[in-house]
Design brief:
The protein is α+β, with helices and mostly antiparallel strands and 246 residues long. It is built from 5 helices and 15 strands.
């Protein structure tokens, strides 16, 4: 857990969206304030917005179905946006995507901003689009997102099951950024959440200075693929792009 001073912090209420630029060498700490939170998140390279988070590569190169401490979050160019350096849950999902207006309306009713103002029922898909538009991005730039604090597992028949009460008040996850990253996030419900009422679960986020990465770093040595990812980052920060093997 990060013990460095908090450089900035804020609280996001449930059913809202936000974006920020995280600098290399800083850590983003997310804290579930009431329990049962969900934080949808995507990453982009602010210097080249065509480079973005790649869920399939992140999972397959680390031989996992879930994200937890030690995992690195990869771009579609083989680089590492950030590393999960601390985590109280041991399971965050990145396969189920977003809630949509159709899902939210069917489960909890169509509560528009015009009729309900801040009590509207926001969905993750539209939340991402609002934030992406601020950077000249749109529908074609969406990718499969992470849902922090949420757990979904598969049974022997391949059916997906959402776990209720997975995250409790005070649970957290820390992301150490290995390159400058544009972070797009929302606090809308997970698409499989079975809650009777629209869940408005707030989170707090904090920005800290990261501890320098050493050759003994846990995330770097979590699997051989992560060492290659860190090497790709090192070459990128030298200004040489990706190594050529032609």
């Amino acid at each position: 857990m990060s013990t460095s001073p908090v450089l900035y912090q804020d609280t996001l209420v449930g059913g809202c969206h936000w974006s920020l630029r995280m600098r290399r060498g800083t850590t983003l700490r997310l804290i579930d304030l009431d329990g049962d939170a969900n934080v949808g998140m995507l990453f982009y390279n602010p210097e080249n917005l065509l480079e973005r988070y790649n869920a399939p590569d992140t999972l397959k190169c680390q031989h996992t179905f879930k994200l937890a401490k030690g995992n690195c979050l990869y771009s579609d160019m083989g680089r590492i946006f950030c590393s999960v350096t601390a985590d109280s849950l041991g399971w965050h999902e990145t396969v189920c995507g977003n809630s949509t207006a159709a899902i939210v309306n069917k489960k909890w009713g169509n509560h528009t901003y015009q009729d309900y103002r801040n009590d509207r029922h926001q969905n993750g898909y539209d939340s991402f689009l609002v934030e992406l538009a601020k950077y000249g991005l749109g529908k074609r730039d969406l990718a499969s997102n992470i849902n922090f604090f949420s757990k979904v597992y598969t049974d022997s028949d391949g059916n997906l099951h959402y776990v209720t009460k997975h995250s409790h008040a005070g649970d957290y996850v820390e992301l150490r950024f290995e390159m400058d990253s544009l972070v797009i996030l929302h606090t809308c419900p997970h698409p499989l959440n079975p809650a009777k009422d629209y869940p408005r679960k707030p989170i707090r986020y904090e920005i800290h200075r990261s501890t320098p990465v050493t050759d003994l770093d846990f995330c770097k040595n979590f699997c051989p693929e992560n060492r290659r990812g860190f090497e790709n980052n090192r070459i990128y920060h030298l200004g040489h792009g990706n190594p050529s093997h032609d």
